[in-house]
Amino acid sequence: MGKMLVVFKREYLERVRSKWFIVATLLGPVFLGIITVLPIALAARTKSSEQLSDVIIIDATGTDLGARVSKSLAATTPGARAPRLRVVQAEQVPKEEERATHEVMNRHAVGYMVLDANTSAGKEMRYAGRNATALIDVGSIERIVRQSLLSQRLEREGIDPGRVAALTNVKFDAKTEKITDKGKEGASGLASFFFGYGIALVLYMMIAIYGQSIMRGVLDEKTSRVAEVVISSVKPDALLAGKILGAGMVAVTQVSAWLAMSFLMYQVRGPILTMFGAPAMAAAAVKIPSVAPLVGVALLLFFILGFLLYAALFGAVGAMVSNQEDVQQAATPVMLLLIASLIFMQPILLNPSSTLAKTMSWMPFSAPLMMPLRMALIAIPWYEIVGSILSVVVGCWIAIWLSARIYRVGLLMYGKKPSMRELARWIRMA
Amino acid sequence: MSEPAVRISNVTKRFDATVAVRDLSLVVPRGSVYGLLGPNGAGKTTTIRMLLDIMAPDSGSIEIFGRPHRDRGALDKIGYLPEERGLYKKMQVRRVLRFLAELKGVRVKDADKRINYWLDRLGLITPEKDWGNAKVDELSRGMQQKVQFIGTLVHEPDLVILDEPFSGLDPINSQALKDTVVELKHAGKTVIFSTHLMDNAERLCDSVCIIAHGEKVLDGEVVAVKEAQGTRNVALAIDGPSQDGVRTLLQDRRLVARADDQNRFFEIELATGADPQELLRRVIATGVQVRRFEMISPSLHQIFLERVGATGVEEGMSGHG
Q1: What was the ipTM of the complex prediction?
Q2: Which of helix, strand or coil describes residue A309?
Q3: Which residues of chain A, if any, have pLDDT below 50?
Q4: N or C: which end of chain B has fewer CB within 10 A?
Q5: Nearest Cα residue in chain A from B92
């Protein structure tokens, strides 16, 4: 136990001191913050686009449609430059378009639209401008023209203009809520979708990064031949345990640091968003989904067990081979197990109560990723969670038992990669 | 204090079909320098690894200072320098040594003191630079060997085991190692080293054990081992031209059982019943200048060749320790 702690201490300190760890730990939340804040800031910015009304309207409909559109556009952004309406004959349109194009090129306007007989017929309108690729702007223009045309038609049918304004004023956003066994939950469906996805992804990343890092560490001890000195002082089992727990503790440290920094950033999200130019209102859109304490414990358990299982396997792979060339190949089966979970993440996200999802959350190698994902998406009965944890415990125990045996023998074996038969002999031999 | 440093009793170790060590028994007296001799592949490294509990013997028992070697803390008294040496390349020298010391149960504070002593003594702390703060891979090969050596001794072990310690050492480190072995002996420590270089062993060891093909050939104090062989050997040193006559003479099996031709020096084992005076007369008769003609005990090298046989050596060359 004492010697295991010495190994643990070395493993932990050497990793935490590395530049990679410090950079990744500091930049992780910054990166996360950017990908959270940026879309909101961008969306907010596009929504309040002042460019919307700074356009030329070429109206060849021979009606007041152009005037209606102009009025509506001007109303979206009061204070900004008003649209310039040009009522023209149909045959003048090409010449007017050419003129408008030059004006847009010379930055006298952001864009121009052409309203003609086709528009009156409800078929099409044309818009050209610098913001033609901004979906939200184009969407707004479409909506305004549609509404103007609709109210024009309604008024022509003899309906009171005041009534028309009230009737055509339809504008809504879809607000979604998730319903579980316990009733409605605060977070939106989309939020828990991203939360579940995020948790599974972080688990996957931690297992892949630190698992492989253990593998390289073991191989490094072998190739540098320091392994023999070390195991003349400490039993291989204690060495492997110390290495796995040390690296695991580094992963826990990193995730804790990320959580703490994310929480801090969440506290000051208002100023950060304002800094990016988003209105303070947008801060409310950033929500941390609530996690029940028991779910939190289960998540932690899955993380620990999943990490142990894969770390043990990666450790054994590191001890199996003797050089860098062989190690990736030897690690492929373990990586496949891990990646399989990642590949099935998509279908399970879409349908978290399917048979596939249930099966994957009972398999020891995929449960540590799948169960947290499903738990974030839907309500899972407690016996399924307990059963899944038990299955991972058993899987973990088998993996550690096998790995310790491969490790004990492999650590002093040099030469070519062992075949499956040789590996089986190692396991019997140890 | 009466029990020996190491007692290996009837130890056998098999790897699949091959027997690496067969029914080996040996006793290493406390405070002695003990040589484990044999060709490559004789089972030296396997024996050492079993001693260190890196491998488990299939049968037999091993005691260290009178206690089973698997006892708690027994291994903490041993310092081990494996044949294939290496350190954590990316780690700071001081941290590697502290780690190795801590693994042997030394407290960090004590470890740091001893590490500084050794770094200073082996010239790794100079007025310009303290190499203890450098990373291992920034050090030259010779310096890394020194660091490895400190790692072996930093916990002040009572028993030091060196597996082929002279292989790959530069002459300066090689001399430093010999000095240290002698010093350790004077400090009352026990040193076991394995080697296939008999000259080193003959000069350094109090006792030896020669093994070949996993079996003990002979063991005992060097003096006793040599005396047991009798003084049937002749050291002959010659000079001048016409040495061919001597070489022809040495082919005479009635007179000479075996001769080790080292160009200007020969170690000659007389045939049974042959008269050394007769040999001397005939050597002089060839007209060569005789620099030295002396009845001696056979060298360990000769004993080794005689007992193990040239074939054993040849076969052993292809295997590993």
Answers
A1: 0.81
A2: helix
A3: 48, 182, 186-187
A4: N
A5: A14
Q: Within an 8 Å CB–CB cutoff, is residue A230 touching chain B? A: yes
Beta carbons of B134 and A38 less than 8 angstroms apart: no
Res B310 pLDDT > 60: no
Residue B9: which region, alpha, beta or left (left: phi > 0; alpha: psi -120 to 50)? beta
What's the rounded Cα separation, in Å, for the pair B299 and B305? 10
As a whole number of angstroms, the distance between CA B82 and CA B151 comes to 11
Superfamily of domain B6-226: P-loop containing nucleotide triphosphate hydrolases (3.40.50.300)
Cross-chain Cβ contact A229/B82 below 8 Å = yes
- Encoded amino acid at A228, one letter: E
**Chain B residue whose CA is closest to A5:** B103
Is residue B318 scored above 50 in pLDDT?
Answer: no
Report the C-alpha gap between B142 and A164 in whole angstroms. Answer: 94
Residue B174 confidence (pLDDT): 87
**Residue B24 banded pLDDT, cuts 50, 70, 90:** very high
Positions of CATH 3.30.70.100 in chain B: 231-296
Which of B88, B106, B145 to probe by mutation at the A interface, max A CB count within 10 Å? B88
Residue A31: per-residue pLDDT: 78
B139-198 pLDDT, tens digit each: 998 899 899 999 999 999 999 999 998 888 888 888 888 999 999 999 999 999 998 888
Q: Which helix (H) or strand (E) holds A113?
A: strand A111-115
Q: How far are the Cα atoms of A207, B92, B276, B280, B294 from residue B291, in angstroms, in the given order?
A: 75, 55, 16, 12, 10
Of the ranges A85-94, A121-130, B20-29, B293-302, which is most confident? B20-29
Q: Residue B269: how many CA atoms within 13 Å on its side-chain side?
A: 16
Neighbours of A138 (CB within 10 A): 15
Tell the burial category of A170 from Cβ atoms under 10 Å away from its Cβ (0-12, 13-18, 19+): exposed
pLDDT for the residue A189: 56
Question: What is the value of pTM for the model shown?
Answer: 0.74
Interface probe with A: pick from B16, B58, B84, most Cβ of A within 10 Å: B84
Q: What is the DSSP string of A245-308?
A: HHHHHHHHHHHHHHHHHHHHHHHTHHHHHHHTT--GGGGGG--PPP--HHHHHHHHHHHHHHHH
Disruptive mutation site among B54, B76, B85, B106 for chain A (greatest number of A CBs within 10 Å): B54
H/E segment holding residue B110: helix B108-121
- The full set of domain ranges for chain A reads 2-43+180-429, 50-168
Alpha carbon separation from A1 to A6, A8, A164, B96, B111 (Å, rounded): 9, 10, 82, 20, 20
Residues of B in contact with A20 (CB under 8 A): none
Q: Is the backbone of residue A345 left (phi > 0), alpha (psi -120 to 50) or beta?
A: alpha
Cβ neighbours of A295 (radius 10 Å) = 15
Do B75 and A233 count as a contact with CB atoms less than 8 A apart? yes
CA distance A139 to A47: 10
pLDDT (tens digit per residue) in B128-152: 899 999 999 999 988 998 999 999 9
Supply the pLDDT for residue A211. Answer: 92
Please give the mean pLDDT across all residues of chain B: 87
Task: Write the CB contacts of A408 (distance below 8 Å, at least 6 apart in sequence).
Answer: A236, A237, A430
Distance between CA atoms of residues B15 and B55, nearest Å: 11
CATH class of A50-168: alpha beta
Query: Which residue among A14, A224, A231 sits closest to B54, beta carbon to beta carbon?
Result: A231
Which residues in chain B are classed under CATH 3.40.50.300? 6-226
* Closest chain A C-alpha to B84 CA, distance in angstroms: 6
